[in-house]
Amino acid sequence: MRIHLTSVFVDDQDKALRFYTDVLGFVKKTEVPVGEDRWLTVVSPENPEGTELLLEPAGHPAVKPYREALVEEGIPATAFAVDDVRAEFDRLSERGVRFTQEPLEMGSVTTAVLDDTCGNLIQIVQSA
To answer: What stretch of H or E contains 88?
Structure first.
């Protein structure tokens, strides 16, 4: 068994697609109309057949209080692995990304947390 799909709730799918592709560097994998929204996924360009990230509309009434609570507590909605957190922090900061946590070494991992502009905090993680 392996993880095929995971998701983050987003306020605006178009804005999220731009951020996750143009800023973070993912590539669009799937886009299928589903009523007023879309089944919209992105993948890592390093593994186009790997785990997909669904940019899921945040319209369900339970989503807003859930996301607000996570953000208020500084809890990331998900985490992405990177080879070098400091380099990604610098690259993304130059692109205007706002970080809520600068690179922090914690034993065998280094993390940083960014705001995805779509209602979520996202953690980037480098394992030693």
So the answer is: helix 85-94
Nearest to 59 by CA among 26, 22, 11, 99: 11
The residues facing 127 across adjacent strands are 109
Q: What is the 3-state secondary structure (H, E, C) of 52-86?
A: EEEEEECCCCCHHHHHHHHHHHCCCCEEEECCCHH
For residue 128, pLDDT beyond 90: no
Domain ranges for the chain, please list them. Answer: 5-127
Average pLDDT in the chain = 97
Closest CA relative to residue 24, chosen from 114, 126, 125: 114
CATH 3.10.180.10 for domain 5-127: yes
